[in-house]
Amino acid sequence: xxxxxxxxxxxxxxxxxxxxxxxxxxxxxxxxxxxxxxxxxxxxxxxxxxxxxxxxxxxxxxxxxxxxxxxxxxxxxxxxxxxxxxxxxxxxxxxxxxx
Length: 99
Fold this sequence. Notes:
With 99 residues, this protein is mainly α.
């Protein structure tokens, strides 16, 4: 049995999942401490995988599908969720700093 090969574009799409980006940015924006971004990343990952799984199960096309015979790319999604959360956290500090 050989290990399946997935092109880099598939790996990239896992990190650019729209649900992952939206959840991570919004929760990163609302986080009041940098340490909470790890929790934000876990929540964004969970919501993203669940949404992708549901949409793939329904049969809708999705940029980063999740299924029993499809790759989930958890490491890529986790790192991407953290980076998007950091971006949301940083944007809040620059655009609308709290007083």
